[in-house]
Queue: 2 jobs
Job 1
Amino acid sequence: MNKPHTIALILAGGEGTRAAQSIPKQYVQIEGIPILAYTMRAFDRHPLIDDIYVVCRDEWADLVRRTATELAFTKFRDTIPAGDTSHTSIRNGVATLSSLFSSSPSDPIVLVHDGVRPLVSSAIIADAVAVCQRHGNAIAAMQGEEAYMTGDNVKATSMIPREQLWGAQTPHTFRLSALVSVFHEAEARGITDSQSLYTLMAELGRWPLYKSRGERVNLKITHPEDIWLFSRLVSVL
């Protein structure tokens, strides 16, 4: 199978209020560089990735570009302005990629990844690309390992077998043409605030969605303890 043109679209536009930091969590420095830089580095080093674009707010764009230069990332191309929500940020990214690659003879594969998942592995990236090539899409996922309850805040009234539950991680990987199509459909149907690309595909009934490799270590930094854990992992890696 021929190698496709492959683009990493890294989302770094969030405010990260749950992390209780003075700046958005993706820009918190660990061992002298922002958390986002670890995410960018994982894609920059991967042989299957051709281009990296970072979706971020305008006030952080210079820092992102400067970090890419200082760390000699060779695949970073530019930043893209973030929106007020994850939905609009992804839409902005897709629209920009569409304008840049609309005349491309190939239909690029786009890996949409959270900037605050800095421990994304080479194996996760490779499998996302392979599954997308084979099936047209890929959602990194991990099978549930806990017993899951359903009910209210006080009591459980039923359960769902863990074998039926998979936690969606990122990257969410699709052909660029599919992403353009899905945002056109979302706009036509008035869907403007999906939590993620995966949930948008689900809302629009774009099934089936195919699972690619996820890993426990592919954690999304959300809370203060996640920053603490990541800093400890970095110190021993």
Job 2
Amino acid sequence: MEQQLWITSLFNRVLAGPADSFLTAVKVPAADPVHPFADWFVCEVLVVAFMVLLFAYLRSKLSVDTPGKTQHTFELAYEFFKASTEEVVGHDGLKYIPFFGTIFLFILFMNLIGLMPFFESPTMYTMVPLGLAVCTFFFYHFTGLRANGLGYIKQFLGPFWWLAWLMLPIELISHFARPLSLTVRLYANMFAGEQVYLTFVMLTKLILPVVFIGLHLFVGFLQAYIFMLLAMVYVGGAVSHEH
């Protein structure tokens, strides 16, 4: 068995029993009952817990008269999400800001947790980007059906009825390729960035690690933004009435 992170070992030592019972109850037995938790899953759970605590704290500190630095930061983030949504999706897309903002911050925090000693970025494991991509896939189709009803199906048939036999398979292949594209893009970039960062941390001590920490931060922000932007593009196309 590969060496696990200290936090994963702690989870497996304390919570292996409940985890095995849950997996057995849902008919998905663990591959290793002694170590049911994986590094990527534990780090992902920590990110979720951090986000819940962060926004609970932020909610308790919200103030109109004396906003703090944290409130200012997230107000700027909201304005950024709003401007991006209006530009890509349109004014009707503002109701989807909670999804776009959540997926951006969730991916960002998962990308950056790998910079902390003794932790790893969950996004460098294929299961995590794949899960996010599948959620995005179902979300934009759901929004398309809700906005256009059964007329949403017309988007798959092309502009002319006599081209439907050709356009339908092309559109289906295109849409089913999107989760794969989202998965590979996020996974490949984060895996490569993590490996480069870890390699230079082991080889050097001061100057170069700082440079690659900055590079890792940039890649983490960039990949979170690209994923969110593509989700906006897909939602914008799904809810469009121009078809």
